[in-house]
């Protein structure tokens, strides 16, 4: 994910910009750059690769100045290179940009017809040229930015500076985050509070279609009609060190509660009112995804469960057959690879040994291409894949993965919807699902409110040695994930089954000493699930049911505890119902006194076979 830092100050701001970019490195990027207004000119320092490489260029030839913008870029339009790195300059304008502009090609052609020359392959430089056209027509920088964004289709967060107003920066946002850092005699823009926390903890979060103008002494926010609007400044609660636990007892608890933000970040700038935005999977994605006729998903542990959910989504929405494999098994069998099959590797760390080895093995097996879903941009899985979609979970310290799982689900949902659109998914249904996906952070936020009820249920597990999790359809992988979380951190033996398999063996285990956890969303399989639960109840089993608010469930019978959750729609329900089961595992482990964040025998990143 690209990152933005900008500043107007009474001091040289290059060190601030560089420090801010380093704080955003976890987001993922392939080039970095900054531009500073210096004595009547805009001086740029840009480099392909890491911030440290750009910093070395700056150290060799320092650029003084109190007004500047900086950026880390993840390539969408144009390959990673110095010429495609931000900031871009057009005329007397310099600009940095997060997001994707959908109509940049038509804008570029009309500008070329007017005599404009472009030096990069990016949509961002086109934006800069549009703004410069308005400046040349006599508009102020803010007026020019406001007029320009009215012409844009897509998602953006931008910071713009002009030689004509060298002590002023204008920002704007739509679909991508942008915030203001408020100082004394200095103000900042950033795409993430973490980029600014070392210089100020007072933040002002901009809303959709806001245009902000900052100087050393002022911050003014306007709507697209040019009217001033009020935005409240807040003191940020994050620390300068993103891996601090803060108010939470454990990292795992903190990361569970970070999920609304993490999922929102994963979706930001990738989905808009007209659907999934172009080029989010890489600049070479279109011909590959258009040819895809089969998918093999390979992963381990929690990531494997995310792939299992994705199988339901992709097959239903895109009608493409999907095979999901445990990486350690895939490596050692003779896999049949149908023509035009896409290999998808899923890993939180990007260094999981079996997954990485499986991806390397896939190279000789004739796949169409490799695709990575990962949280760590510098990882081997990402570097070695043809296409990639970075999750934006941020640092995950707890060994038991939580926000990595829900962000992987968000990433897979984007892929499923995009493939569905390419394969003729009904347009109205496609847009409904896109709208549903955009609401996922809100539904996760609501699901977190179930914690007090879950805490009471955790008491039932303190002295238990076994538990059984049940789910149907896309909720079966969620049951698997719930059982994995419980066994990882509480050391209770837990298994998960499709609920319809009860009669084929697991029912023999059911008695009053084994809690049965069931996931009951409101859907076509609800009645089937209720029949399965009656079988458990008839054997005296203790049922814990996570049920959709709209599902009709008998909660009056003894031995049944029900937690109501608003699961949203069918697409997002697996991610929503995952949250209370994470809370259950966490609170059971706390009450049993285990080491929640570092459970015995486990490591965060499994880098050996």
Task: Describe this protein's structure.
It is found in: Cytoplasm. Strands 3-2-4-1-10-9-11-14 form an eight-stranded antiparallel sheet, with helices on one face. A six-stranded antiparallel sheet has the order 5-6-7-8-12-13. The protein is globular. Helix content is 35%, strand content 24%. The relative contact order is 0.09.
What is the global morphology?
Answer: globular
Q: What is the structural class?
A: alpha/beta
* Count of helix runs: 19
Order the strands across the largest sheet as they lie in space: 3-2-4-1-10-9-11-14
Helix proportion: 25-40%
The Rg value, from CA coordinates, equals 25 Å
Q: Give the low-confidence spans.
A: none
Summarize the biggest pleated sheet. 8 strands, antiparallel
Number of strands: 26
| Mean residue pLDDT | 90
How do the strands and helices of this protein lay out in sequence?
Blueprint lengths: L2 E6 L5 H10 L7 E8 L2 E8 L2 H10 L6 E7 L14 E3 L2 E9 L2 H10 L9 H14 L4 H9 L4 E9 L2 E10 L4 E4 L4 E4 L11 E4 L5 E4 L4 E4 L10 E3 L15 H7 L1 H9 L3 E2 L2 E2 L8 H7 L2 E6 L1 H18 L3 E5 H4 L10 E7 L5 H10 L6 E6 L5 H5 L2 E4 L12 H20 L4 H12 L1 H9 L2 H8 L7 E6 L3 H16 L2 E6 L16 E6 L5 H13 L3 E7 L11 E6 L7 H20 L17
Parallel strand pairs: 17-18, 17-19, 19-20, 20-21, 22-23, 22-24, 24-25, 25-26
Antiparallel strand pairs: 1-4, 1-10, 2-3, 2-4, 5-6, 6-7, 7-8, 8-12, 9-10, 9-11, 11-14, 12-13, 15-16
Helix pairs in contact: 3-4, 4-5, 7-13, 7-15, 9-13, 9-17, 13-14, 13-19, 15-19, 16-19, 17-19
């Amino acid at each position: 994910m690209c990152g933005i830092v900008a500043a107007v100050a009474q001091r040289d701001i290059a060190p601030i910009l560089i420090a801010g970019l380093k704080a955003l490195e976890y987001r993922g990027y392939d080039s970095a750059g900054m531009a500073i207004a210096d004595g009547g000119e805009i001086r740029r320092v840009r480099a392909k690769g890491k911030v440290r490489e750009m910093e070395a260029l700056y150290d060799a030839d320092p650029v003084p100045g109190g007004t500047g913008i900086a950026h880390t870029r993840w390539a969408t339009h144009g390959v990673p290179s110095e010429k495609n790195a931000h900031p871009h300059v057009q005329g007397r304008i310099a600009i940095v940009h997060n997001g994707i502009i959908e109509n940049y090609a038509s804008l570029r052609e009309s500008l070329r017809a007017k005599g404009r020359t472009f030096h990069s392959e990016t949509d961002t430089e086109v934006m800069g040229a549009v703004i410069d056209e308005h400046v040349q027509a006599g508009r102020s920088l803010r007026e020019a930015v406001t007029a320009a964004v009215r012409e844009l289709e897509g998602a953006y967060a931008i910071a713009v500076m002009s030689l004509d107003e060298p002590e002023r920066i204008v920002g704007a946002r739509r679909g991508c985050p942008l915030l203001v850092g408020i100082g004394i005699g200095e103000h900042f823009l950033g795409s993430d509070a973490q980029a600014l926390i070392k210089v100020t903890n007072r933040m002002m979060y901009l809303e959709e279609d806001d245009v902000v103008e900052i100087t050393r002494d002022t911050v003014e926010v306007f709507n697209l009609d040019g009217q001033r609007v009020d935005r409240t400044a807040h003191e940020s609660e994050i620390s300068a060190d993103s891996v601090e636990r803060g108010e939470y007892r454990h990292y795992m608890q903190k990361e569970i509660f970070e999920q609304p933000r993490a999922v929102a970040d994963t979706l930001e700038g990738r989905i808009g009112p007209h659907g999934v935005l172009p080029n989010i999977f890489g600049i070479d994605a279109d011909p590959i995804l258009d040819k895809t006729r089969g998918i093999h998903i390979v992963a381990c542990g929690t990531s494997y469960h995310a792939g299992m959910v994705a199988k339901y989504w992709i097959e239903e929405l895109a009608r493409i057959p999907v095979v999901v494999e445990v990486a350690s098994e895939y490596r050692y069998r003779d896999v049949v690879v149908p023509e035009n099959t896409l290999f998808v590797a899923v890993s939180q760390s990007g260094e999981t040994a079996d997954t990485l080895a499986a991806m390397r093995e896939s190279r000789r097996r004739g796949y169409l291409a490799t695709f990575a879903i990962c949280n760590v941009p510098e990882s081997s899985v990402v570097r070695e894949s043809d296409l990639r979609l970075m999750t934006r979970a941020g640092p995950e310290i707890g060994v038991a993965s939580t926000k990595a799982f829900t962000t992987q689900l968000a990433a897979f949902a984007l892929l499923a919807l995009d493939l569905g659109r390419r394969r003729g998914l009904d347009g109205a249904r496609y847009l409904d699902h896109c709208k549903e996906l955009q609401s996922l952070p809100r539904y996760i936020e609501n699901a977190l409110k179930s914690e007090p009820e879950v805490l009471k249920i955790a008491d039932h597990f303190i002295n238990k040695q076994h538990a059984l999790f049940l789910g149907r359809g896309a909720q079966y992988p969620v049951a698997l994930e719930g059982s994995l979380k419980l066994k990882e951190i509480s050391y209770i033996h837990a298994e998960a089954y499709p609920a319809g398999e009860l009669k084929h063996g697991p029912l023999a285990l059911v008695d009053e000493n084994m809690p049965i956890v069931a996931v009951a969303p409101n859907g076509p399989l609800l009645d089937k699930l209720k029949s399965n639960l009656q079988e458990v109840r008839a054997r005296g089993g203790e049922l814990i049911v996570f049920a959709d608010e709209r599902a009709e469930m008998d909660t009056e019978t003894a031995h049944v505890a029900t937690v109501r959750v608003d699961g949203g729609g069918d697409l997002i329900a697996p991610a929503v119902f995952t949250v209370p089961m994470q809370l259950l595992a966490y609170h059971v482990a706390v009450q049993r006194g285990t080491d929640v964040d570092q459970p015995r025998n486990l490591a965060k990143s499994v880098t050996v076979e």
